[in-house]
Amino acid sequence: xxxxxxxxxxxxxxxxxxxxxxxxxxxxxxxxxxxxxxxxxxxxxxxxxxxxxxxxxxxxxxxxxxxxxxxxxxxxxxxxxxxxxxxxxxxxxxxxxxxxxxxxxxxxxxxxxxxxxxxxxxxxxxxxxxxxxxxxxxxxxxxxxxxxxxxxxxxxxxxxxxxxxxxxxxxxxxxxxxxxxxxxxxxxxxxxxxxxxxxxxxxxxxxxxxxxxxxxxxxxxxxxxxxxxxxxxxxxxxxxxxxxxxxxxxxxxxxxxxxxxxxxxxxxxxx
DNA sequence: TCCTATGTTGTATG
DNA sequence: ACATACAACATAGG
Length: 271
Description:
The protein is of the alpha+beta class. It has 2 domains: 4-130, MutM-like, N-terminal (N-terminal domain of MutM-like DNA repair proteins, Alpha-Beta Barrel), CATH 3.20.190.10; 144-260, Helicase, Ruva Protein, domain 3 (Orthogonal Bundle), CATH 1.10.8. Helix content is 25%, strand content 21%. The chain has 6 helices and 10 strands; from the N terminus they run H-E-H-E-E-E-E-E-E-E-H-H-H-H-E-E. The strands form 3 sheets. Strands 1-6-7-5 form a 4-stranded antiparallel β-sheet. Strands 2-3-4-8 form a 4-stranded antiparallel β-sheet, with helices on one face. The chain is elongated. The structure holds a DNA duplex.
């Protein structure tokens, strides 16, 4: 589920606990989401500390407790955060539960276990996994020049696969990539290096537009996107393009199922 | 039974 | 070293 806007939504699920202290930590230490982590250190590190802030960058979240305890969460494919009241009984996929002094429980759920939990205590500064993150797509540092340079470096890969690369497009996932290419009228199979200037210009504009739209519609309260987006049509059997009324195509590109509108998104090799 | 799933990563190959 | 492609991870649901 989680891409840029969904991650922002899940970040906010824990913010009601800001200012509250952790009084207990329950976790399933043998689960894959804790791979490489010292869960005892996580337990003892967080206990007694108050949640200070909650941040998101792309698909990565960071929750800071006390003055030096960092909890990183990545939601993988099926991860979610929730907040529950004191009487809630954690279920089998609730792999991390922080019991707060208010009685609230901060829950991290992940049935498929593709997510990840990170913990670090840093006396000063940020953990390495929160440093040197690529510029957010809506930040000033995310320039057209920067994007174009990356497209050139990945010139022989389909643009769909390139948009999924987190080191350049943090937060973009499968549905956003399809939405962006559809709005840009670019065929997802086009090699990144074959895009002409008009196409890269459209791509840059629509990329930022989809990020803004998604954060506004999904990131705030998870509203249903309007039918004018590709979003509501792409997984439906017999779905049609809202622009042309023609049937949408679904086919794997770059290892992921991709949906596009063949007439609308120029299919041939450009130029 | 088989196929799919809004993600990343390790490994093989060029 | 760099770019590219793909299986593997673990579980649920259609």
